[in-house]
Predict the structure.
Amino acid sequence: MPKPPGSPLDETDLALLAVLTREADITNKALAHRLNLAESTCAHRVRALRERGIIRDTRIRLDEASVGYPLQAIIKVRLANHTGPTVTALFDALASVPRVLQVFHVAGVDDFLVHVAVEDATALRDIVLEHITVHPVVRGTETQLVFELRDGAGLLAR
Amino acid sequence: MPKPPGSPLDETDLALLAVLTREADITNKALAHRLNLAESTCAHRVRALRERGIIRDTRIRLDEASVGYPLQAIIKVRLANHTGPTVTALFDALASVPRVLQVFHVAGVDDFLVHVAVEDATALRDIVLEHITVHPVVRGTETQLVFELRDGAGLLAR
DNA sequence: AATGAAACCTATGAACC
DNA sequence: GGTTCATAGGTTTCATT
């Protein structure tokens, strides 16, 4: 029987998440031994964490430059008006543009922050002109090149 | 013998990456059958992609709210001066702050964009005051709440 | 580089404590 | 929850091409 969605995470769950956050591809066997759990218990708990949505998914991270997209940028997008359906539709549109990695919908002067990786400056301009400012609701954009992107310490850091 | 770092990706590599990007936890067997490759060939190519650094790593993604950090923000950080060692040291410091998910070092008015997930507004203020503006080189910050964050179409989208 | 088959290892589920 | 065990399934190696 799965735990109710609102159950708090116990110490074991947090320990599992802490290890999985650093080593997502550890085998269940190694994970169980690391935490002194039975393999079946460990597998059961990890499955439960996935079913409860606490672990959303597993992803690989590509080296953007190695696959031909060495230039990254954050494109700030400001809107002319902020009616609900307009904002949502633009959010959808931005997220579906090739080479877009993430789209942040934020509160403030900028409405969206669009993180992209592209092959060169021309491709960056093309995204801004053809996929962003092309929307009438977009009042303006401001592009910042990304020198470097690092992972932070994360949620479970002390 | 691993391929030299500069070798271009062939069609098969791109097909593998396209599948893995969507389903990182697919088994090697299923992946091989999907692309009509022998299992051994498929395993070998994926291993090579990892060794070449094209696949950087595998990560789980947590549901931030479920683990107690329902509030996300982007904190823009502006510096007073931009001497190399200072900037690098601050980059290191920001990336090691608990609850920081990502740090972008960017070119523009803002020098860093710090993406955080926190338990509440108080925790957000504490990060800004105790971990960011505490550095003398930081001239100012501007915090934007994140309403929603979406994945983009990604690098391999057509 | 790719293949198929064997050998090896891991994950899974049942029965029980 | 934990333990044990049996089975199914996945991964790795290697001789071959």
Q: What stands out?
A: Helices of chain B lie at 11-22, 28-34, 39-51, 84-95, 121-132. Residues 11-51 of chain B form a domain with the Arc Repressor Mutant, subunit A fold (CATH 1.10.10).
